[in-house]
């Protein structure tokens, strides 16, 4: 299968050749012809499958036809859950559209409105936005959505998880009924189906990854370890090859910051990326990581959504996620596009129950091996009574005396994107307490 045979325009084929893409990924092969037909599409694809190009290429091809956007009247809207993902979609659209005269702009919170208003006033063909900030612009009338011909909902499952449903409904109500809607989601869970039923017109479905599976090119390793020496083990694992770019996941923002301080004190070049960091700090951390200025990026689950780093050889779970599905999202950062990847999890006895959930979800065995010198005092338990961390309570780490932690108030898990409605935030906190510290 070639990109030519999908019916893409020569200007796009040239850009793809320059990107070094030899052939379409399965989601691209399945989705591009459908989108070019102009019908609605419901696509199940995880990050790392090439999903961005699957909607960007036919979107650009559509926009090549017809007049350019008028002032404040974009012709296409891409909604994403996080700022990082918005920025990445924007980068990809620019790469693929480099030989076309199609303009695009990102609209997300955490930066001032003024420049965004000016850009919209000049007129852009494609707006890539997070829902909260888009609503701010709608209220200020700095943009008019009545000319939108194509709507893309990227990582729609994550947008719902983050409480953006009310915002999405408001945005959808402002769009023309006559439009093409493309919805991409890691799974077709019932809330996604409900969204599709309500807002899409007889969508065609494509699905390239069965729900909740990870790339077969990823090998999973678990190292049991006492919580008190976990970070020493992390340092040990990292120092096996200190030049290797490594993404490390931490369950909490505070934990991510502490880990970075520890790694820096040990001479490693590290940075944290999470919702309490300013947009500038996040962008800098990501670009430093991509350029190799830092070798370790410590991320929380929500902030890591949408991080697009090619072929990361290894992902380390310093903590296991409270929700097993998040393991799949984390691991989506490695083993991409056929490359080999490794997922290493440092698991304390208290996290046994979380490991059990993950094994159940993956339906595959994970190699469990002790690292010499770091053997745990209590083995992991994978039976029905396996313990799990008490939510909201930090694990005793690094031998710190109990009670010596500073009180923390870290806001809530939505901060990787922008504001969901308060009511939803509360609901989310009840449903997924773990996310409250992501
Ligand atoms: P995505 O799932 O959209 O986040 O894409 C994952 C990565 O795969 C990105 O770094 C893309 O640049 C890359 N990619 C997308 N399509 C292709 C392709 N057909 N061949 C090679 N790499 C690709």
Write the layout of secondary structure elements.
Blueprint lengths: L9 H10 L6 H12 L3 E4 L6 H14 L11 E4 L3 H14 L7 E4 L5 H10 L3 E4 L1 H9 L10 E4 L2 H6 L3 H9 L6 E6 L4 H10 L4 E4 L10 E7 L5 H9 L7 E4 L3 H13 L4 E4 L5 H13 L4 E4 L1 H4 L9 E4 L6 H8 L9 E7 L4 H11 L4 E2 L53 H10 L7
Parallel strand pairs: 1-6, 1-7, 2-4, 2-5, 3-4, 5-6, 8-13, 8-14, 9-11, 9-12, 10-11, 12-13
The site of adenosine monophosphate has 15 residues, from helix 3.
Brief summary:
The chain has helices spanning 10-19, 26-37, 51-64, 83-96, 113-122, 131-139, 156-161, 165-173, 190-199, 230-238, 253-265, 279-291, 301-304, 324-331, 352-362, 422-431; strands at 41-44, 76-79, 104-107, 126-129, 150-153, 180-185, 204-207, 218-224, 246-249, 270-273, 296-299, 314-317, 341-347, 367-368. It is of the alpha/beta class. The strands form 2 sheets. Strands 3-4-2-5-6-1-7 form a 7-stranded parallel beta sheet, with helices on both faces. It has a 7-stranded parallel beta sheet with strand order 10-11-9-12-13-8-14, with helices on both faces.
């Amino acid at each position: 299968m070639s990109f030519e045979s999908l019916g893409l325009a020569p200007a796009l084929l040239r850009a793809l050749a320059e990107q070094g893409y030899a052939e379409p990924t399965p989601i691209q092969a399945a989705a591009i012809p459908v989108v070019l037909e102009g019908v609605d599409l419901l696509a199940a694809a995880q990050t790392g499958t090439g999903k961005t190009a699957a909607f960007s290429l036919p979107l650009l091809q559509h926009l090549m036809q017809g007049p350019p956007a008028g002032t404040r009247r974009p012709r296409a809207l891409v909604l994403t859950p996080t700022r990082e993902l918005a920025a990445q979609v924007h980068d990809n659209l620019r790469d693929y559209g480099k030989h076309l005269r199609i303009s695009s702009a990102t609209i997300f919170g955490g930066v001032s409105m003024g420049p965004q208003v000016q850009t919209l006033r000049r007129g852009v063909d494609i707006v890539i936005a997070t829902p909260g900030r888009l609503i701010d612009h709608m209220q200020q009338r700095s943009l008019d959505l009545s000319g939108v011909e194509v709507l893309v909902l990227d990582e729609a499952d994550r947008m719902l998880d983050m409480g953006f449903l009310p915002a999405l409904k408001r945005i959808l109500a402002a769009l023309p009924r006559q439009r093409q809607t493309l919805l991409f989601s890691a799974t077709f869970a019932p809330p996604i189906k409900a969204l599709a039923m309500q807002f899409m017109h007889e969508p065609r479905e494509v699905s390239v990854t069965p729900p909740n599976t990870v790339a077969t090119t990823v090998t999973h390793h678990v190292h049991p370890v006492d919580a008190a020496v976990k970070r020493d083990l992390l340092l040990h694992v990292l120092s096996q090859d200190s030049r290797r770019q490594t993404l490390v996941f931490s369950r909490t923002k505070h934990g991510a910051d502490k880990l970075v301080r520890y790694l820096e004190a040990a001479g490693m070049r590290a940075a944290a990326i999470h919702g309490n960091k300013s947009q500038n700090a996040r962008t800098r951390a990501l670009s430093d990581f991509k350029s190799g200025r830092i070798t370790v990026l410590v991320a929380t689950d929500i902030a890591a959504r949408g991080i697009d780093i090619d072929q990361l050889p290894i992902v380390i779970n310093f903590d296991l996620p409270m929700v097993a599905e998040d393991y799949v999202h984390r691991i989506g950062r490695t083993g991409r596009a056929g490359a080999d990847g490794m997922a290493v999890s440092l698991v304390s006895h208290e996290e046994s129950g979380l490991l059990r959930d993950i094994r159940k979800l993956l339906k595959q065995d994970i190699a469990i091996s002790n690292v010499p010198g770091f053997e745990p005092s209590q083995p992991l338990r994978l039976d029905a009574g396996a313990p799990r961390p008490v939510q909201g309570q930090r694990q005793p780490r690094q031998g710190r005396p109990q009670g010596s932690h500073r009180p923390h108030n870290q806001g809530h898990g939505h901060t990787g994107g922008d504001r969901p409605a308060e009511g939803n935030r509360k609901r989310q906190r009840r449903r997924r307490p773990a996310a409250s510290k992501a």
